[in-house]
Queue: 2 jobs
Job 1
Amino acid sequence: MSRKYEVNNVSVESILSWIRDGDVAIPEIQRPFVWDSTKVRDLIDSLYKGYPVGYLITWRNPDIRLKDGTKSSGKRILIDGQQRVTAMTAALMGMEVLDENYNKKSIKIAFNPLEERFEVLNTAIEKDPNWIKDISVFIKGEVNELKFVYDFCKEVPDIIDEILFKKIKKLTEIKHRVIGIIELSHSLDIETVTEIFIRINSKGVVLSQADFAMSKIAVNKEFNGYLIRKIIDYFCHMARNSSIVEAIRKNDPEFVQTDYFSKITWIAKEKQDLYVPTYSDVIRVAFTSQFHRGKLSDLVSLLSGRNFKTREYEKEIEEESFKTFEKGVLEFVNETNFKRYIMIVKSTGIIDKTLIRSQNVLNFGYILYLTLKTKGVDSNKIEKLVRKWLVLSLLTGRYSGSSESQFDYDIKKMLEDSFEVFIENEEKGQLSDAFWDNILVSRLDTSVRSSPYFSLFLISQIKSGDRGFLSKEIEVKHLIEERGDIHHIFPKKYLQKYNLGRGQYNQIANYVIMQSEINIKIKDKSPKIYFNLIKEDITNQKFSITGIENLEELKENMKENCIPESIFEMEVGDYEQFLNERRKLMAQKIKKYYFSL
C-alpha cells in the first residue's frame, strides 16, 4: 500500500531556496498577503527563540511522462502555510508582497540586540541607533559582520562587541531552524487531500476543489498557467473594485503589456452587481463549458496530464488541457459574451442580485450560453433555452444540493440528448400539473422571506410589467431597483394584536412589494377597513391612500399582485383562508410566467 504522505523536518534556508528556485510554488489562491505586520514580527520572534511555528503542507504534482519516455519531476504545491512562507520571504529575503489591493509593500523587521526584541520597522526605530533596521541583510549574508559590529558598538557603547557577535550569530541561525513539512502524495485525490488538510489544520479551514484547481493553474509556467491565474484573479477583483486596475498597472507591468490585460479591463467599468463572479465561478464555468465535465477533481487531473485510460500522466495531455482551459477562461471574460449573458438573465425578469441567491444557477446558465454559442445555435434559440433553464433550475432547486454532480449530469445529458430535448424532458418530469397545483402551492407555505419561490413571484411580476401593490404607476421593477420595501397585506401590527406569531404574520403569501408612503397610510388597519376606505376615496375622488382612480384599475392592480377579491370583507378570522387563496393565485401566476418564456 502506497504511503499517503511523508513528514520531514526542513530548514528555513531550504524552504526559502525552494521558493527562490521555483521548486515550491505559492499558488496565491485568490488571496494576497493578508497578515498584519505584527504577525510577521511574532513569527520571526518564534523562529529566533526556537519555538514551533506549525507544519507546512505540500502536495506534489505527479511526475509527467515526456515524449522521449523519461519523466519530469513534479513541483510541490503549498497547500497550507502560504501566509507563513510569504512572511518569511518578506522578512528574511527582503521580497515585496502584495496586499489585498494588489499594492506592493515591504515588511522590514528590526532587531534590538540589547533587548533581543523584534519590531516592525517604523520612523522612531529608524532614528534609534539601538536597532538593527532590517534583519534580512544578515540572513542573505549581505553584511560584513566584523565591520557592522565595529560600527554598531561605536554608536551604542552600552553593548560589548563579543555579546553583539553572539546575538547576530543567533539571529543568522534563524535560517537553520527547522520546520515540519507534511508532503502529500500526488496519488491522492482531492477529497482525501481535503480531509487530511482539515484534520491537521486546527482552524478547520476548508479548501474547495476550486482552490486545488487554482493551485495547479498558478504553479504552471510552461503552458501559461501563471498567466491564466492572473486573468482569473484580476478579473474577479476588478469586478468588485475598479480602483484595483491602477494598482495592477503599477505593480504588474509585465502582465499589463500582454493581450490578456486588455481583454479583462472592461469589467472595471461595469456597474452591474447581478453576477459578480468569484475565481471559483470562473473556473467552474470555463471547465464545464469546454471539457463538458462537472467535477473539478477531473480538471485537476487533466491539468496534471492524467490519461484516464492508462492512469499515466502525459505531457501532451497536460499541454492540451491548459490550452483548452485557457480558451474557456477567455470565453468567460469576453466582454461580448458576458454582457449578452447578463442581458438574457435580466430579460428573464431577474434584474437584481436579491432575486437570485444561487450563484450556481447563474453559473450553469452561463455554461449553457457558452456551450450553445460554441455549437453555433441560433441566438434567439439560445436566449429562449437559457431563460427557461434559469427559471426551471430556480423552481426545482436544482443546484441547491450537490451542484458539482448535478453539473456533471446536466452537461453530459444535454450533449447526449440535445439541449432542447433534454430541457423538454426535464420540464415534463419536473413541472407536471401536480407541481403547479400542489407542490408549488405547498412551497409557498413558508415564512422564510428569502424563499426562491417568493423571488420567482416578484420576477414574474417584473416580467409582466406589474405595478406595486396599490400603486397607480410605480412598477415592481422600479421598487426593486430602488430598494423598495416588502410589506404585509394583513398588517403585522394588526395580526400581532390578535397574538399571531412571527411564523404566521410573516408568511410570504402575506407579502407584497409596495411604496412605503402607501403602507404608512394603511398603518395597522384590517384589509376590510383599508380596502373600503380606498373604495370611498375612489367614489369621492380624494385619493388619501392611493392614486388609483377607479374600481376597475384597483381590481387590475389586485390581479397583478394576486390579491383575491374576497379581501374587501376580510378580517383576522379570514387570514388563513386569504393565505390559501393567495398561494394558489401566486402559483398560477408563476406557471403562466414560466410558459411565456
Note: Residues 5-200 form one domain.
Job 2
Amino acid sequence: MSAKSSNCWSFQTRTKAIPNRDAVGLIHAPHGRDAQIAASLLKEAGIASKAALDLSGFVDSLDDNIALAVITEEALRSADLRAISQWIENQPSWSDLPFVILTNRGGGPERNPAAARLSEVLGNVSFIERPFHATTFISVARSAARGRRRQYDARLRMEALDEGERRLQTALEAGRLGAWELDLATDVLSTSATCKSIFGRGPEEAFTYHDLFASIHPDDRQRVQDAHTATAESGEDYSVEYRTVWRDGTVRWAEVRAQLYRDHSGKAVKLVGVSADITDRVINEKQQRQINELLEERVAERTRELEQAHSVVMDEVSQRERAEDQLRQAQKMEAIGQLTGGVAHDFNNLLMAVLGNLELLRKLVAGDPKAERLIDGALQGARRGASLTQRLLAFARRQDLQIGPVDLGALIGGMRDLLERSVGSTILVETSIPDHLPKVSADANQIELALLNLAVNSRDAMPDGGTLRISLSQEEQRFSNDTLAAGRYVVLSVKDEGQGMDEATLQKAIEPFFSTKELGKGTGLGLSMIHGLASQLKGELKLSSRIGSGTTAELWIPVSSAAEQPRQAEAPLPPAEYQGGPKRILLVDDDVLIAMSSADMLLDLGHDVVEAHSGKEALEHLGKGPKFDLMITDYSMPGMTGGELSKAARALLPELPILIASGYADLPPGVDLEVARLGKPYTQAQLAEQIGKLTSPR
C-alpha cells in the first residue's frame, strides 16, 4: 500500500456531527505499514480509527459504533469468514456496515474471483486497488462514512416511529380498544390481543376473518355484512354494534368502528379500525351513557391517530427515497469529478516521460525518414492523449484556462480544413460568419476543442451524410438568470440534420460519460467538457433537439472587454551556451521514469543535472556542495510536497530560482507560493524557455 501524493491537496475537514458520536473506522491490516497508512488517511478524512491485530479481535470489535471497516484482501484470503458473515447477517434492519477492501494491482473484483466472493460475504463493499492515490482512498472513506451517517439517521427515525407506535398501542390498551386491519383482496385479518379478547379468544390463538364472522350473533350478521359492504363500496366510515357469541355460549356486545384505507392510486385496499366490548353499556345503558359518549370520542380519536400513523411510515418513506436518490446522484457526480481529476493528473505524468523521450529520440535519428515517421506517429498519439487530459481536467474544473480576447470568426476560418477532414466527404460544412463581430473572452485552444467535438458529434448523428451548419451571431441578455448574467454575448451555433434526440436523452446529454454511441466509439466526455468550459467562461451551453429534426448546440460566450495582446512568434530553441552558459540544476521528482526523461532533456540542452527523488534528499543536496542555479521540482510527492520543499529551500537559499512542475495546470487551492510553474507534459522548448526566464540576469 502506497501513501504517494498524500499531501497533494489541502483538505479542510468539516464533518457533520453524526448521531453516534463515538463511531470510528475499524482497520484490519496485519502486514507491513498498511494499518498505519490507513489510519493516517482516515484521520486526514476526519475519521477516528482503531486497529484489530487479528481477525478474531476484528470480529469482537464490530458493533454499531463502527463507521466503516478497512481490510486488506490478503488478511481475508485464507481466513474463516463465518464469524464475520454471521455478524453481518445479524445487523439491525437499519444497518449496512460499509467495508473498504484493499487489493493488489489487478486484484479487483472484475479480474479476481476471490475478491468478487468477498462482495457476496460482506455485502456493502468498495474495492481499492493498490498502489492508489491518497485522494482516492480519502474519497471512498468519506463516501462510506456519509453512507453510515445516513444509516444512523435512519435508525433515529425508525426509533421515533417505533416510539410513536408504542405510545399509540399503550393508548389503545389503556382504553381497552382492540385494533384490527382487514385486507380486502385476501380477507386476511390482523388483530391485537385486546381485539381477540373482545371475541373471547386468547392472545396466542388464531383468529381469522371467518372466525370473526362466525362469532357474530346470527340475527346481527346481515346488518354487519351490509355495513361492511357499504363502507368498502362508498368509502364512508362505519360504526356497528352487534352481539357476539363466545365459544362457551356467553353473549356479549361489541362495537366496531372502521375506516377505508386507499393506496396512492385511490384503490381501496383495507379496512382499519378498532373494536370495544360494550356489554356493560348495553346492560345498563342509562348509567353508561356518559361513558359511552366518552368512548365514542376516544374511538374516533384513536381511529384518526391510526390513520394518520399509516399516512405518515408512507409519506416519510417517499420523502426518504427521494432524498436518497438526490444524494446518490450528488455523490456520484462528486466521486466522478475527483476520480477524473486524479486520472488526468497521473496521465499527464506518464505523458511527460513519453513525450520527453520521443523528442530526444527524434534528434538521435535525424536523417532516417522511416524512424522519423514512426516517431512522429508516436508523438501525435501522445499529444492526442494530452488533449484528452485537457478534456478531463476541464470536466473536473482543474484545468487552468488561458483566457483572453478571441476572434471567433478567424478561429472558425482557420479550422475550416480541419473540420472538413474530421467530418468526412459525405458531410457538407456551411459557415455563416457576420463581419465586425466583437471578440469574446475565452481560451482559444479550448474553444477549438469544443467546436471540433460538436462537429464530430454532428457527423456521427448523420451516418448517411448531410449538412453541418456553423454560424456566429451577436446576442444580448437583457436580464440576469440562473445561468447567464446580463450583457453581450457571441453565440457559436452548430446545427446538424441528424436523427435528433428525445427529451429524456436530451436531459442526460451533458452528464459525464453518458453517450449514445457504441462501446469504444466515444468517451461521453465531449458535451460535459463543453458544458464545464461554458461555466468556467461564465457562459452557457444550450441544446435543442427533436427526433428526426436534428440537433442544435449553442455556445454562449461573453464579449471581451480587454484589449488583445499581440502574439509573439516562438523563438527557436537556443543551446545552453546562448542562455548565459550551462546551469547547475537540482531536479526533484519521486517518479524515477519522469526524472530520467526530464534529466535527459536538461542534459541535451547542455546543463549539469543533479537528481533527487524526495524532498528530504533535495534539501541534503542544497545544504552541501557547489551552489545550484535552479531547482525544478514535482509538486505531488510523498512525505514532502513540492510546495513544502520550496518553502524549506527558500529558508536555506532565499535567492534560489524555483520551478514547480505539476500534472495539474494549477496548484491546489490554498497553496500560496511565489515560484514559477510549468504544467506537465511539457516540451523541451517550454522547459528551455522557463530556464532562460528564471536564470537570466535581472
Note: The CA atoms of residues 240 and 256 lie 5 Å apart.
